[in-house]
Amino acid sequence: MAEMTVDLVAVEERLWSGTARLVSAQTTEGEIGVMPGHEPVLGQLVEGGVVSITTADGERVVAAVHGGFLSVTATTVTILAEAAELTENIDVESARAVLSDSQDEAEIAAARGRLRAVERA
């Protein structure tokens, strides 16, 4: 099966890098699915979005992403997020607390994205 190289990078760290069969991400234009050989595209990621990667081994890597860009070529996908968290690092209770206590729209969007990522994992 065809594969592509994928890098998921936040401002401060590389969260995941490897080969994959499928990447899906929420952009400002809607959700996009990318498979090897996809036409080149540049998309802006939504605040509080989710990125899902199906690895070459069939495993799923899911992350909450907070803004940034998705760059696609025929053989690579690069996700450059302003901030991102893999689902195994998300504190669900903390995200729920933000939803019930915060008035800040950016914090609320990020918390919703974290919870959606955990649900999709």
TrEMBL record:
It is found in: Cell membrane. Belongs to the ATPase epsilon chain family. It comes from the Bacteria. Transmembrane segments: none annotated. F-type ATPases have 2 components, CF(1) - the catalytic core - and CF(0) - the membrane proton channel. CF(1) has five subunits: alpha(3), beta(3), gamma(1), delta(1), epsilon(1). CF(0) has three main subunits: a, b and c. It is a peripheral membrane protein. Residues 4-84 form the ATP synthase F1 complex delta/epsilon subunit N-terminal domain. SUPFAM superfamilies: Epsilon subunit of F1F0-ATP synthase N-terminal domain (SSF51344). The lineage of its organism: Bacteria, Bacillati, Actinomycetota, Actinomycetes, Mycobacteriales. This is ATP synthase epsilon chain. Produces ATP from ADP in the presence of a proton gradient across the membrane. One of its GO terms (molecular function) is proton-transporting ATP synthase activity, rotational mechanism. Keywords: ATP synthesis, Cell membrane, CF(1), Hydrogen ion transport, Ion transport, Membrane, Transport. GO terms for cellular component: plasma membrane; proton-transporting ATP synthase complex. InterPro entries: ATP_synth_F1_dsu/esu (IPR001469), ATP_synth_F1_dsu/esu_N (IPR020546), ATPsynth_dsu/esu_N (IPR036771).
